[in-house]
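1st attempt posting a full record on here, be nice pls
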Amino acid sequence: MKTENFKTISENRKARHEYFVLESMETGIELMGTEVKSLRLGQVNLKDSWCSIDNGELFIKAMLSGINECIYLLMKKGTFLTVIL
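the predicted structure (as tokens):
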């Protein structure tokens, strides 16, 4: 049986103290080129990042230092987001 090793790169524990988190979910992340290098170097900023839903797809924005791009988050098929405004 093959075991997979996962490493937590960054965690925003402060957000759980400042906000009431109703639900959390695990997603994959699609990275390319310099994004991979930045992530490996630990240049992740979750404090100032946010997620948005564009055309039914989930993106995280302003997560990596020096990269001003949207990063596509991969969710399991059949997962639905509940947005509370």
